[in-house]
Amino acid sequence: MKFPSVARLPLLLAPTATMALLPSAGRRSSTVAATRPRHFLADGVRRPRRPSARLSTTAEDGDGSSPKVVSPASKAPSNAKRPPAPPPPPDASTFPPWSYDPRPHFRFEVLHESSKSMARVGRLHTPHGVVDTPGYVAVATNAALKGVDWRDADAAGQQLAFCNTYHLMLQPGTEVVEGAGGLHQFIGRRDRPLITDSGGFQVFSLAYGSVHEELSTGGELKRASLGDKNKSANIGGAPPVKVTEDGAVFRSYRDGRKFLLTPESTVQAQKALGADIIIPLDELPPYHIDRDALERSVERTHRWEARSLVEHLDDVRKQAMYCVIHGGMDRELRRKSLEYLTSLPFDGYAIGGSLGRNSDELMDLLAWMMPLLNEDSTNGGTRRRGKPRHLLGIADETGVLGAVRHGVDTMDSCYPTRIARHGTLLSREGKVHIKSGKYSRQYGVPIDQECGCSTCKRYDRAYLWHLFKAKEPVLMTLATIHNIHYMNDLMTRQRQLILEDKI
Question: pLDDT digit string (tens) for 407-418?
Answer without folding.
Answer: 999 999 999 999
